[in-house]
Input
Amino acid sequence: MRYRIAPHLAFMIQWLRVLGFDVRPWEKRELLDPLHDALIQWEPYPLPLPRKGRGLTVITLSRATLPQLLKEFLEQSGQQPDPEKMFGRCLRCNTPLIPLPPDTVKALWPELPEYVYRTQKRFNRCPTCGKFFWEGTHVRNMRRTLSDWGVLPKETGVE
Ligand SMILES: [Zn+2]
Output
């Protein structure tokens, strides 16, 4: 499912992408396909849905904080974060990332810090904006935050 999210909930976008969901901002005149698209809106600010939007899946969230909203999204959409897909999208532009071996990253990006090159085994690159991603403290911190919020199961001995 491709999600389009209301402007009032834009602060959820990066976290939903971290969780592996395909999420882009909702554009006013964009034609949505009921078979593949679903709309996420916030109860206090319902979107002006065109008549053609009939049959479209609309997820209406009502909670107030980011952790509550993320959990409410999972409940209402019936989706669970897929560990295989988590951290698999560019946080900047939503494109699915492509895994690359460290040597290829080093060849494409000679400025890759030596420490990162020596310590990280898994790299990804966004084919759209060219940004490189790797597991590191940032990813670990985000995982921890998500489990502290109760969005992911509590971590058990995960580094
Ligand atoms: Zn990108």
About this structure: Residues 42 and 61 are 5 Å apart (CA to CA). The radius of gyration is 18 Å. The pocket of zinc ion is lined by residues 90, 92-93, 95, 126, 128-129, 131 (CB under 6 Å).
